[in-house]
Amino acid sequence: MSDTPAGLREIIFDTETTGLDPADGDKIIEIGALEMIDRIPTGRTFHHYIHPGDQPINPDAQAVHGISIEDLAGKPTFDQIVDAFSEFFAEGRLVAHNASFDMKFVNAELRNVGRETFTDERVVDTLMIARRKFPGTKNDLDSLCKRFRISNAHRTLHGALLDAELLQEVYIELTGGQQVGMALDAQAEVTGGSAMPQGKTGPARQRPNPLPDPRTEESAAAHAAFVETLGEGAVWHRLGKKAQ
């Protein structure tokens, strides 16, 4: 796994396929991916529908994603988009939900066209993260969206790019939410500039006008009377005398 000079690059992606197993000849028919740098979405995306050649689409798979072979007429085959795919996926972590499913298809497609496959070290599986954090509960994408109050009302069928967009939000929540960014923003506001490294502080900004003194004559007299009851040896008696 390698990172770009700009920071940690993560590719959140999803696939739709003709069936369940590339060993049976099943192929990818849609890939959708989003780029994040240092946990911030950059807006860069990769999205392609892919014609599976002579491999039919299993009816059960079509019921999930809604893509028919007719929908893919005129779409490129994987070998026609592999250069663009390889360029987008060249650097960074690969983040997917139930990643073993997506990766076996991706690597099968790469092997079929004589390209280098991806290693497990580059892959982050959000399903495994969710199972560790929420054992004994449903951890499919819809359930995680509900848990984190991420709207997926527009999701009636699976779609690779739509699922990648939802997974991006789920992944951020699973790995600490926006707390990191919020903390840096808050620290930047205090220092009046860029966020300082952890453990260091910058000069605090001064108020343009000081706050009014909240004390009144009555509260000052009451405080003085209380200090007198403490006795000469009490710390608060000495401090109170100094403050008068």
Give a brief rundown of this model:
The protein has 244 residues and is α/β, with parallel strands linked by helices. The protein has helices at residues 59-65, 78-88, 99-112, 126-133, 141-147, 160-174, 179-191, 217-228, 235-243, and strands at 9-17, 28-37, 40-49, 93-96, 123-125.
Put simply, the count of helices is 9
Give the number of DSSP strands. 5
Tell me the CATH topology of the largest domain. Nucleotidyltransferase, domain 5
Measured on Cα atoms, how large is the radius of gyration?
29 Å
Query: What is the 3D form?
Result: elongated
CATH class of the largest domain: Alpha Beta
Query: Percent range for helical residues?
Result: 25-40%
Number of domains: 2
Q: Order of strands in the sheet with the most strands?
A: 3-2-1-4-5
- Low-pLDDT segments, ≥5 res: 179-209, 235-239
**Overall pLDDT level:** 81
The CATH superfamily label of the largest domain reads Ribonuclease H-like superfamily/Ribonuclease H
Describe this protein with a few key phrases.
2 domains, 9 helices, 5-stranded mixed β-sheet, 39% helix, Nucleotidyltransferase, domain 5, single chain, 244 residues, elongated, alpha/beta
Task: Note down, in words, how this protein is organized.
This protein has 244 residues and is of the alpha/beta class. It has 2 domains: 9-174, 2-Layer Sandwich (Nucleotidyltransferase, domain 5), CATH 3.30.420.10; 214-244. 39% of the residues lie in helices and 15% in strands. The chain has helices spanning 59-65, 78-88, 99-112, 126-133, 141-147, 160-174, 179-191, 217-228, 235-243, and strands spanning 9-17, 28-37, 40-49, 93-96, 123-125. A 5-stranded mixed β-sheet has the order 3-2-1-4-5, with helices on both faces. α3 links the parallel β4 (93-96) and β5.
